[in-house]
Design brief:
There is one protein chain. With 341 residues, the protein is an alpha/beta fold. The chain has three domains: 121 residues, HAD superfamily/HAD-like (Rossmann fold), CATH 3.40.50.1000; 111 residues, HAD superfamily/HAD-like (Rossmann fold, 3-Layer(aba) Sandwich); 61 residues, GMP Synthetase, Chain A, domain 3 (2-Layer Sandwich), CATH 3.30.300.290. Helix content is 33%, strand content 20%. It is built from twelve helices and 20 strands. The strands form five sheets. It has a seven-stranded mixed beta sheet, sandwiched between helices. Helix 3 packs parallel to helix 4, helix 5 packs across helix 6 and helix 10 packs across helix 12. It comes from Micromonospora echinospora (Micromonospora purpurea). This is Haloacid Dehalogenase Superfamily Class (Subfamily) IIA/haloacid dehalogenase superfamily, subfamily IA, variant 1 with third motif having Dx(3-4)D or Dx(3-4)E. One of its GO terms (molecular function) is phosphatase activity. InterPro entries: GNAT-like, HAD-like_sf, HAD-SF_hydro_IA, HAD-SF_hydro_IIA, HAD_sf. It holds the Pfam family GNAT_like.
């Protein structure tokens, strides 16, 4: 890594906590290198956990999906926002209370598993509404939720991810559906359970028994911010939702500790960088010129990224500037990082 160490990043941690969508798989296809990366971690004696905001599958279903992709996983290694939301409601409501579920069957199953009664209509007098992602969610379910919340039901969202990564590009996530209900109700949910709230990561980190945990994610506003709220270091991989331009504009609470193109950064010191670096380091120089962040010099693309972060994060104005190459090597590096021309 460019911060001077020759050791593998993963050697500093007992536990690695992965986000799923955009890190391990896209919808139902493993991301290249993910199967091998998890296998290497297990072979090296590391603990593995998965923390996902996607509430459309139960932990056992996620574990089965991962195992089918060649990533052996146990249900107890999977932490979902659906299960976390159900446990939160269990702790707040009397046994058998009616909860209106907007989402997939997995979320209904989690509500039922904690002794609450999932319902689908507002006239069944639910005391709470829980809203999670489900590909079949439509106007009718949102309408029932709106009526229930207006009647006094507590509104809990499993997460507010605006999009889901997919091979076809970002698709509407639960946050988009929450936004529709927020518009209709002119108010926010009473509680949001999933990332960036720290609960999922804090629960996972306890399994490391103080030996160190690293969060790996593709979203700055959920994975990385959630890791920071939980007091954990994080690795941003560029295989999912957020890329370099998003990283440069990230607010302080959503800035990762490390960045790599993919999961190879866990094992290869040359495939990961600590951010921010210095504006002039690793053979690169970044300066503000003609209302742009101008990159000159040559070297490792990731070192150019670290230098860019140093300057972009120095002021709010710099974070909004476009990036421009001032040398052929810089042009190649920015292209390798996916920075648009």
């Amino acid at each position: 890594m460019s911060d001077g160490g020759g050791d593998r990043l993963v050697d500093g941690f007992r536990l690695v906590v992965f986000d799923l969508d955009g890190v391990i798989y896209l919808i139902d296809r493993p991301i290249p290198g993910a199967v091998e990366a998890v296998g290497r971690l297990r072979a090296g004696g590391h603990l593995v956990a998965y923390a996902t905001n996607n509430a459309s599958r139960r932990s056992s279903e996620v574990a089965e999906l991962l195992t089918g992709m060649g990533v052996p996983a146990r249900p107890e290694e999977v932490l979902t926002s659906a299960a976390a939301a159900a446990e939160l409601l269990r702790d707040r409501l009397p046994a058998g209370a009616a909860v209106l579920v907007v989402g997939a069957d997995a979320l209904r199953a989690e509500i039922r598993a904690v002794g609450l009664r999932p319902v689908g209509r507002a006239d069944e007098e639910p005391v709470a509404v829980v809203q999670g992602y489900g590909p079949q969610v439509g106007w009718a379910e949102l309408a029932e939720a709106a009526v229930a919340v207006r009647s006094g039901a507590t509104w809990v969202a499993t997460n507010t991810d605006r999009t889901l990564p997919s091979p076809r590009g970002p698709l509407p996530g639960n946050g988009a559906l929450v936004a529709a209900l927020r518009t209709a109700l002119d108010r926010d949910p009473d509680l949001v359970v999933g990332k960036p709230e720290p609960a999922l990561f804090a629960t996972a980190a306890r399994r490391a028994d103080g030996a160190g945990a690293l969060v790996v994610g593709d979203r700055l506003d959920t994975d990385i911010e959630g890791a920071r709220r939980a007091g954990l270091p994080s690795l941003l991989v560029l295989t999912g939702v957020h890329g370099v331009v998003d990283l440069l504009a990230a607010p302080p609470q959503a800035r990762p500790t490390y960045v790599s193109v993919d999961l190879a950064g866990l094992f290869d010191p040359d495939a990961v960088v600590r951010v921010p670096g210095e504006p002039t380091a690793g053979g690169w120089s970044v300066a503000v010129a003609d209302d742009a962040l101008e990159v000159s010099g040559s070297g490792r693309p990731l070192d150019a990224l670290a230098a860019l972060c140093a300057l972009a994060w120095s002021t709010a104005e710099a974070a909004l500037l476009p990036v421009r190459a001032a040398s052929p090597a810089a042009e190649r590096a920015l292209r390798a990082l996916g920075v648009p021309d």
